[in-house]
Amino acid sequence: MRREARWVINGLFIVIGCILAAGMAVRVRRQERAERTEPLEGFEVFCSGEEISALYPAGDSLWVGGRDGVKRLDIRTGELIDYVAEDLELIYAAEIIEGADGAVWVGHNAGVTRFSLEGRRQDFAAPALTGGRVNTLLYMDDRIWVGTMEGASLLEEQNGVWAVTKTFTKENGLLADPVNVLACRDGELLFGSYLDNHPGGISILTNTGWQYLTVEEGLAHPYINALLPLEDKIFAACGQLTAGGLNQIELHADGYRITDTFDKTDGIPGEKVRWLYLDSNGYLWITTESDGLILTKGTGLTHPIEGIVLTWEQGLSDNEIKRIVETDAYYFLAGRYGLTRIEKQAVAKLMEGEHHGEDER
User: Fold this and answer.
1) Do residues 305 and 294 lie in contact, with contact meaning Cβ atoms separated by under 8 Å?
2) Closest Cα partner for 97 from 142, 56, 140, 155?
3) How far is CA 309 from CA 28, 133, 295, 347, 360, in A?
4) For the chain, where are the alpha helices, taking DSSP H only?
5) What DSSP state is assigned to residue 350?
6) CA-CA distance, 126 to 130, in Å (whole number)?
7) Contact partners, residue 57, CB within 8 Å, separation at least 6
8) Residues 71, 293, 297, 239, CA torsion sign
9) What are the backbone angles phi and psi of residue 189, rounded to the nearest 5°?
10) Considering the chain, what percentage of its residues have pLDDT values greater than 90?
11) For a pLDDT cut of 70, what percent of the chain falls above it?
């Protein structure tokens, strides 16, 4: 009886401690916000305080996926237009993409949902899909690849009906079951793993079979957060918490090799590289877990990296940017605590050197 009472008392202390810690964190964050100077011109934050994991621009609206479902915002005002689906939860990792027929695919915590142009909805979930939350989607050759915490699945349309036709796990080719990111280059598929370091890394399905890149081959970390295929190379964003970096991968006669590595000593503002985006103007966005992002001209990176660092202090919703999309006039950055909209003209001015000083590396 005394032992049970002791467990109850200890449990109460733990709960109280967690509440106090959370309260202190909120208080510190409010104080930081109060002390922040004016954001840079052209920066505006919507959905403040909301965790946003997925973005999809569609005409004059922006689909935003988060904890409370998928909603549409007016890209000019940031105001809510309506909800596409309130029952889909997108937190930590998820994605919204468009298929060849204009249908929109949403990866979320419970599976994948397809919205046709006519508004019809179709849901896919385990056991047809590999299980766990959906981390990533990839459109390739009129098919949809789905990466989940327990593998990868291929969705194909057959006689007007979409169905799962193939799955990959550790048992039939992958380095690890969790597929955090998918990418393709010249018809070859890349699967980036997460939360598994035995060994973890990148599994590549080539025209001749499987190839693997791990820390033994030079990866900065076994957890892969983003893959950016380019004409002459592939960038891989790696890391967790206080470890990681950016790897450059190139194709040689004997397969893919890691040819360069960039980290905090090269000017990346944080250890874990969170997301990579090459925009229509040729600017490369390299984001981190909790220290903002660095914006560079082009993909020919040097040691150190030449670019401009942007953080919460300059106008981001917060220092963790999880996804980036663009329209004709704006960039939209999904953050852990809100959505940042940046005018393209403002970024062009920054990159042309009209704002120098502490933000430039």
Assistant:
1) yes
2) 56
3) 23, 32, 6, 12, 6
4) 2-35, 344-351
5) H
6) 6
7) 63, 75, 325, 326, 327, 332
8) negative
9) -100, 140
10) 80
11) 87
Instruction: Return the amino acid letter for 296.
Output: T
Label residue 17 exposed, middle or buried (CB < 10 Å: 0-12, 13-18, 19+): exposed
Kindly report whether the global pTM for this prediction surpasses the value 0.85.
yes
Q: How far apart are the first and last CA of the chain?
A: 62
**255 contact partners, CB below 8 Å, separation of at least 6:** 206, 211
Between the alpha carbon of residue 43 and those of residues 289, 311, 316, 342, the distances in Å are 20, 11, 7, 5
User: Strand pairing partners for 30?
Assistant: none
Listed in sequence order, the residues at least 6 apart from 280 whose beta carbon sits closer than 8 Å to its beta carbon are 326
Amino acid at 70: V
- How many Å apart are CA 147 and CA 131, to the nearest integer? 10
* pLDDT (0 to 100) of residue 92: 66
> How many whole angstroms separate alpha carbon 90 and alpha carbon 315?
24
Contacts of 40 (CB under 8 A, 6+ apart): 314, 315, 346, 350, 355
User: Which tokens belong to 197?
Assistant: 């370091």
Is there a contact between 257 and 249 (Cβ–Cβ < 8 Å)?
A: yes
Please say whether the beta carbons of 96 and 55 come within 8 A.
Answer: yes
HSE (side-chain half, CA atoms, 13 Å) at 355: 19
291 three-state secondary structure: coil
Nearest to 106 by CA among 86, 120, 90: 90
pLDDT 10s digits, 303-329: 999 999 999 999 999 999 999 999 999
CA distances from 245 to 58, 185, 215, 234, 255 (A): 33, 22, 12, 14, 22
Using the structure block, give the residue that is written with the tokens 């000083």. Answer: 357
C-alpha span between 204 and 298 (Å, rounded): 25
In terms of residues, how long is the chain?
361
Coil, strand or helix at 273: strand
Backbone angles phi, psi at 29, to 5 degrees: -65, -40
The two three-digit tokens of residue 71, written as one number: 């909603």
